[in-house]
Write a structure and sequence with these properties.
260 residues, 7-stranded parallel β-sheet, 13% strand, globular, oxidoreductase, SDR_fam, SDR family NAD(P)-dependent oxidoreductase, oxidoreductase activity
Amino acid sequence: MLTALVTGGTSGIGAAFARSLARRGFDLVLVARDEPRLVQTAHELAAEHGVHVETLTADLAVREDLLRVAQRLEDTAHPVDMLVNNAGFSVKTRYTDEDTTQHEAGFEVMCAAVRRLSAAAARAMTVRGSGWIVNVCSVSGLVTMGEYSAIKAYTTSMTESLAVELHGTGVQVTALLPGWVRTEFHSRAGISGSSIPDFMWLDADRLVEEALADIARGKVLSVPSLRYKAVVTALRHLPRPTVRWVSRKISGVRRHELQA
């Protein structure tokens, strides 16, 4: 029986990964901060799919919690075959704001924790000669829209670098670059998304199915849907001044939604 550890596994893309992997017969280790929701999600998945679901209540911005999750990944008695680094949130504050709390928390959860957990999983998996590491990055990492873009640019580059480091070990490393996905992510950030055309929204469950297909094919970069493949191709080839211009336009719309 294979086991997958999913951070942020109770909502959004993380919950979609948990459902899809449970349907495939994976046992699960779900990591999240909200213990009641974590327990409820675990109970539902176990009852529906007949798999074992372990829970770890942890805030990945807290060092002690992060170390507990890393230790679970390196537990040789109960090996983890797939890591899905999904935990994250929107960082709305600007670089010039005096309050840097969101910047610091975003870095800890979506950069430092992703690197540490990826490294812990990689050490354990390379010994066994098999495993999958999936880091949920974002198309946002290809534009220049504040701290969230910078964070996702880092995680994408880090994931590709880890894939190079682990080449030939039997461990598959994949960066998932979703676009806009219908989850709680935007509503929690206070972003209505009303300015985003309907055709640009992705369904989380379908996104995960496409991602798992890419992982099975050994892809290092997974960009679900043809429309976002086109967006990524364009962003990678546009002159940087044009990318910054596009980023300013989108940021202006985003600020209007936050103020609405």
